[in-house]
Amino acid sequence: MAKYVLLTEVKREANDVEWWMDQTNTTEETVQFFNSFEEAKTAMRKTVKRVVKNCDFFPLKNGGYVPIEQHMESYLDGDGENIRSLGKVICNAINKTDYFCEGLEDIKDTDNGDRYYAIVGNESDILVDYYGIALKMNIHNMTDAVKSYYFDYSEFDDYGVLINAISIRLLNNAKKRKQKNVTEKKKNYDTVTFGHYIQDNDGQELSPLSWRVLDKKDGMALLVTEKVIDYIQFSAKKNNNWEKSDILKWLNKDFADCAFSNQEKNLIQKSVSGKKVFLLSLDEYHKYFLNLQDTRANYTDHARNKAYGHPNAKTREPYDAFWWLRTANEEGWRAGADSSVYLYHVCSDGTVNPFKRAEWSNGVRPAIWVNLNDAITLK
Questions:
Q1: By the 8 A CB rule, do 237 and 340 touch?
Q2: pLDDT digits over 91-109, tens only?
Q3: Is residue 278 a part of any domain in this protein?
Q4: At 8, is the secondary structure helix, strand, or coil?
Q5: Strand locations in 184-322, DSSP E?
Q6: pLDDT digits (tens, 9 = 90+) for 253-268
Q7: End-to-end CA distance of the chain
Q8: 160 and 306 inside one domain
Q9: Residue 328: exposure state from Cβ atoms within 10 A (0-12, 13-18, ≥19)
Q10: 213/260 same-domain check
Q11: Does the global pTM surpass 0.70?
Q12: Domain co-membership, 110 together with 36
């Protein structure tokens, strides 16, 4: 059986239709198999070049640079050379099937927290995030036949709804099959209704909260809300310290007082941090969500309105929410980055990104440990 699998997916949306109306979604998918890593690597590079060339929504003009430079150089106060260097790496990786980058040690983290952009590069990964356009890739250094390689491009509208996307991934097929067998066992979660919270469009009515059971042991159950139930900052003071965060106080005061009766509060046990309500950690994400589809979550109407800033905000994606983890990105994205502000968060596709600033707002999925008794019925 073929050892390597190349997955290609291109999604196009009708850009000339108002964002809140029904859209025409066109998705193209291909799967290719290879026995040789060199053959698979060449095929991936050619696929990236072909897809980028044929997608009119991808911002690459006449074989030139991705327009990082033209959009951003005027804002970067002296970082223009870094932008040009990174732009060359991106375009060479796209256009040259035999390209290899020696390293990007001179590329700096250009995110200063004042604008909605970031450009980051190192020997492994490149991230470009600019006003609703995101490009992530690691195909500039394809040397290890064991790791996976990816080229991801996403374009979102002003309300955070995905418009266009390219996803090209080269995976070790043998490892993928092994992981899939484990994942299938984690697909069916028990659920429980516990507590009440504001979830409606008007933000007025309390309704029962649905929780997913992630773990059961010693007469206890670990629960996380099925949906993203609110949209708030981690900390207004731009600090990623979980123990001192605003969101920890909010979870155990504002949220808890609204969501649980005194009897329900007595069923909730304190976590390791000494608090009853908490956010999942990066380790817990990897432990309990082995399937990306199961990791994805939708907003409640209340949370979606806060996220999109529109009273009638809707989405074309069945699962579209971004949500906080409590784990800080201790090392920053790369050397020189401010390690006191970044946190891990879960993206709408279920993957984890370590590049979320504490003062930015994001979705919330509270987690609790509860006693299993007659007051809680698992479904």
A1: no
A2: 888 888 888 887 665 555 5
A3: yes
A4: strand
A5: 191-198, 206-217, 220-225, 230-233, 268-269
A6: 999 999 999 999 999 9
A7: 40
A8: no
A9: buried
A10: yes
A11: no
A12: yes
Both tokens of 328, joined, read 């800080």
Phi, psi of 254 (to 5 degrees): -60, -50
Question: Is 60:91 a contact under the CB 8 Å cutoff?
Answer: yes
Question: Which token pair is 206?
Answer: 């309390």
Residue length of the chain: 379
- Structural domain contains residue 303: yes
Which of 138, 161, 137, 134 minimizes the C-alpha distance to 58?
134
CA neighbor of 245 nearest in space, from 326, 332, 306: 326
Chain position carrying tokens 């309500």: 277
Residue 302 and residue 200 in contact, taking contact as beta carbons nearer than 8 Å: yes
* Token representation of residue 79: 């970082």
Work out how many domains the chain is built from and give that number: 2
Residue pointed to by tokens 């809707």: 314
Backbone φ and ψ for 369, nearest 5 degrees, come out as: -105, 125
* Domain boundaries, position 149: 4-181
